[in-house]
Amino acid sequence: MAKPRTQSNSSIFENFPGLFRPRSKADQTHQSQTVEESTRQALDKINNVVQGELGVVTDDLELIKAMNAVTLRKYQALSSSAQEMLATSSKIQQTYKAMDAHLDQVDLVSKQVEELEGMAKQLDDCVRQLAYYNHT
Which residues form a coiled coil (predicted)? Predict the structure, then answer.
């Protein structure tokens, strides 16, 4: 078991001078002024930081505003291009529909030409055979 300390209260206070002594009115006023000045300085520093942050946020918002304006112009140009492409596509579809009947006629003529080529080949073969028999 440890021995209890037998130091008196007065010797404890002696180790911390000014800690437990009553303060005078002048000391209290000075301490109050010091606290007020420290608080004012702290608030001024906080104000400076907040003002700086506000400036940065304002600059960021201006940058975003400028980026939005550029993006808006680009999307308007893309929209205009898309509308022109849609109009051109519509014209192409109308032209194709108008040509569709002609394409059917071209297909028919092409088929008839193939048949004529086949007949011409048969006639050519017949002429060769006749020529061969005539020479023999």
Answer: none
Which residue range(s) make up the domain with 94? 31-131
Distance in angstroms (rounded) separating the CA atoms of residues 126 and 124: 5
Domain count for the chain: 1
Instruction: Transcribe the chain into DSSP letters.
Output: -PPPP---HHHHHHHSTTTSSPPPHHHHHHHHHHHHHHHHHHHHHHHHHHHHHHHHHHHHHHHHHHHHHHHHHHHHHHHHHHHHHHHHHHHHHHHHHHHHHHHHHHHHHHHHHHHHHHHHHHHHHHHHHHHHHHH-
Residue 59 lies in a domain: yes
Structure tokens at 14: 């002696």
- Domain membership of residue 21 (yes or no) is no
Distance of alpha carbon 126 from alpha carbon 120, whole angstroms: 10
- Report field, pTM of the whole predicted structure over 0.70: no
Reported as a single tens digit per residue, the pLDDT across 61-102 is 999 999 999 999 999 999 999 999 999 999 999 998 888 889
